[in-house]
Amino acid sequence: MTRRAGRTAGVEGSAPLYGIGPDDEIRAVIEGRNAGIAVYGLGKMGLPLAAVYAARVGDVIGVDVDESVVESLNRGDCHVDREPELPRLTRRLVEDGRFRATSHARAAADAASVHVVIVPTPITDAKEPDLSILDAVVDAVADGLSPGDVVFVECTVPPGTCRDRVVPTLVEGSGLDADEFGVAFCPERTSSGRAIEDITGAYPKVVGGVDAESARIAEIVYGYVTDNEVVRASNARTAEAVKLFEGLYRDVNIALANELGTLADDLAIDVREAIETANTQPFCNIHDPGPGVGGHCIPWYPYFVMSRVTEPTPLLRMAREVNDSMPAFTARIVERELDERETPIDGARVLVLGVTYRPGVEETRATPAGALVGELTHRGAEVLASDPLLDDEAIASFGAEPVALSGLARTDPDAVVVVTPHEEFDAIEWDGFDDVVVVDGRDSVGDTGHRTYTIGSGRR
To answer: From CA 347, how far away is CA 328, in angstroms rounded?
Structure first.
């Protein structure tokens, strides 16, 4: 394979960074806006990251496979909803020529010297990490890689991915030796709805390189991206594990809260009150119980670890089982509350409020609402659902009949289950419902005037 000659400083605004000299020379490239950047993946996490890079480090080419997203961004429009600051920042960066989008990853890779990869890494039906999108992007980057380029992986991956998967692919595809370019893992620590705030400094930024030079470059570059501390892990594998451990902690903690929440009736106590009071002790930080755990992070991260180790991981597996069991527990509560009102669940109309996995976030991956709809349907219920963030087609895809927010009471349900407490549900007039059973999964509805059971607190 022919070796690339590489770029020289100033050509297309894409000066090399890896191996060019001491820290002050790297900083001079960045402060002169001579670091050309390609950000691969312009979704809910990728677009905010690309915008911050464009504002603080250098001109950005954003890459996405969705042509409609590319066209929208190049008009200065923002396709990511409910993200403060992002629409205004995106439009300004496009107008200033600091940001543009393309669907041609190979061309973007050829033009850039800093490659930032933030694409989905889901799991398969067999609970194995699916790195196919990451692989495709790395292949494209390899085609355009030049000496002195650096590749920063932000998406979640199993430990060892950068060294054992990304680097060999880049070597094979570029014809370069591994010591001619840099690779570092720099995990996103961002939540939807506050992405700009999180990226620019809400938390320390973690970086870890496959070698010392990669780590040095990542530490310098992200020093411009964030106003917070940059924490340099000893290597990329450790940084990859750090990202996973953050999610594993939450999964195990939520599992504890959920298991405790199922004991409210047996213990004859308000478990939520007990948790809140226990948490006044500074060494205690139990999360809140609920109807399940969703999203593209917490439900998947345990498998990124379990699929790569030979040692048994009983705690991680049990936490997953507990959290995955909560939709079934919620359905059993609905059935029991209906039975005590002498209404069989078989044939009952059950209204589910909230289908997205989190309030205010238009994301349904691994949402517990999906499993709950399935559990209720299996018991013979006629399931309806309402979510202000989703259209009828998205709601119907889970097997529920879509209901508009304005017509909830007119559906005449026998039971209402609150799964995701969107703020729009605060305006529900509960006195419009006739003799309904309410199961509150998140302790969010207050006094409904109806028979109400709150997961973790019991009946009130």
So the answer is: 18
Q: What is the value of pTM for the model shown? A: 0.93
pLDDT surpassing 50 at residue 1: no
- CATH number of residue 383's parent domain: 3.40.50.720
Statement to judge: residues 326 and 187 lie in one domain: no
* pLDDT tens per residue across span 67-113: 999 999 999 999 999 999 999 999 999 999 999 999 999 999 999 99
Q: Which of 189-193, 217-221, 362-366 has the highest mean pLDDT?
A: 217-221
Query: Based on the domain organization, do 291 and 423 belong to the same domain?
Result: yes
In the set 78, 155, 162, 297, the catalytic residue is 297
Phi and psi at residue 231, to the nearest 5°: -100, 120
Residue 243: active-site member:
yes
Query: Same domain for 135 and 30?
Result: yes
To the query of whether residue 205 is one of the catalytic residues in this protein, the response is no
Identify whether residues 178 and 50 lie together within a single domain. yes
Which residue's structure tokens are 């720099």? 186
With beta carbons less than 8 A apart as the criterion, state whether 426 and 446 touch.
no
Which of 44, 162, 205, 243 is an active site residue? Answer: 243
